[in-house]
């Protein structure tokens, strides 16, 4: 649930669509150039090699078409939002593991799986960016636009997973990266509400979080600052606080800034 008193961030439908389709294309291009001998390489995801990661990526791309094909939920208002989705993803891990393994067995051709999912997604993406349409979700009815935002987040996070596992860079669309960074920062603010600490991820977002004395003027006494890619990896559990600070790409100042470490990751 969104933090009390914090207005939900609005995402422009056209920008979400463009970011999603751009990141899909970057994934497709990378997958078609991926040597088959790299499919057995391990990833940072426990028990998964590159082959399973690709099967999961295809599943995440195809999730929007699958949900849109189901009956509309019998409610008139959204029951879940982006903050609740981010907080609940860890609980879906076992189901996603099973789905990825089943998908990899059904379709061993990773290129065909990604291409097919991309085509299915492209066919429904205009419906997926509607703000007035509710779709069913495990956590409750969700606005179609919000769910499409989650597809951007999943694709960016897993594009980086693929880069790290194979050593072959998958480009990250700037718009898609910006959306992902903001969703993860807002999820942290919802998980640790307050105004004693400011998280900055320039040039995309700054949010206040962590309970304590509220800061009102000048430079906040507690500041955490990171580049976008480090924040993405930290918030999704790919690296921990100690590793991020050791590189110098995560900087924390003030006695309360370190409290953020206990709230991470925000995405399962």
Fold and architecture overview:
The protein has 268 residues and is of the alpha+beta class. It is built from 9 helices and 6 strands. Helix 2 crosses helix 4 and helix 2 (50-68) runs parallel beside helix 5. The mean pLDDT is 93.
Gap between N and C termini: 16 Å
In the CATH hierarchy, the architecture of the largest domain is Up-down Bundle
Instruction: Assess the beta-strand content as a share of residues.
Output: 5-15%
Give the beta-strand count.
6
| Overall morphology | globular
Order of helices and strands: HHHHHEEHHEEEHHE
Q: What is the averaged pLDDT score?
A: 93
Name of the CATH homologous superfamily of the largest domain: dinb family like domain
Radius of gyration, in angstroms, nearest whole number: 18 Å
Oligomer: single chain
- Portion of residues in helices? 40-55%
Largest sheet: 4 strands, mixed
What's the CATH class of the largest domain, please? Mainly Alpha
Number of domains: 2
Name the poorly predicted regions.
Answer: none
* Structural classification: alpha+beta
Largest sheet: spatial strand order: 4-3-5-6
**Count of discrete alpha- or pi-helical segments spanning 4 or more residues:** 9
GO molecular function: isomerase activity; metal ion binding
Organism: Streptomyces triticirhizae
InterPro entries: DinB/YfiT-like (IPR034660), Maleyloyr_isom (IPR017517), MDMPI_metal-binding (IPR024344), SCP_3 (IPR041629)
Domain Bacterial SCP orthologue: 173-266
């Amino acid at each position: 649930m969104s933090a009390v008193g914090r207005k939900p961030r609005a995402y422009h439908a056209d920008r979400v669509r463009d970011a999603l389709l751009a990141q899909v294309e970057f994934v497709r291009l990378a997958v078609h150039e991926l040597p088959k001998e790299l499919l057995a390489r391990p990833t940072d995801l426990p028990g998964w090699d590159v082959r399973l990661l690709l099967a999961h990526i295809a599943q995440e791309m195809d999730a929007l078409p699958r949900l849109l094909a189901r009956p509309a939920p019998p409610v008139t208002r959204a029951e879940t939002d982006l903050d609740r989705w981010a907080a609940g993803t860890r609980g879906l891990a076992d189901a996603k593991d099973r789905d990825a393994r089943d998908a990899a067995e059904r379709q061993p051709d990773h290129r065909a799986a990604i291409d097919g999912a991309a085509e299915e997604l492209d066919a429904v993406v205009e419906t997926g960016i509607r703000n007035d349409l509710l779709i069913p979700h495990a956590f409750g009815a969700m606005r179609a636009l919000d769910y499409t935002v989650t597809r951007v987040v999943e694709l960016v996070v897993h594009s980086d997973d693929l880069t790290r596992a194979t050593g072959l860079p998958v480009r990250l669309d700037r718009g898609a990266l910006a959306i992902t960074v903001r969703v993860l920062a807002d999820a942290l603010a919802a998980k640790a509400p307050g105004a004693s600490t400011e998280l900055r991820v320039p040039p995309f977002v700054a949010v206040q979080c962590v309970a304590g004395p509220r800061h009102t003027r000048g430079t906040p006494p507690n500041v955490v600052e990171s580049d976008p890619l480090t924040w993405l990896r930290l918030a999704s559990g790919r690296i921990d606080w100690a590793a991020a600070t050791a590189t110098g790409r995560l900087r924390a100042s003030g006695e309360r800034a370190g409290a953020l470490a206990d709230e991470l990751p925000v995405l399962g």
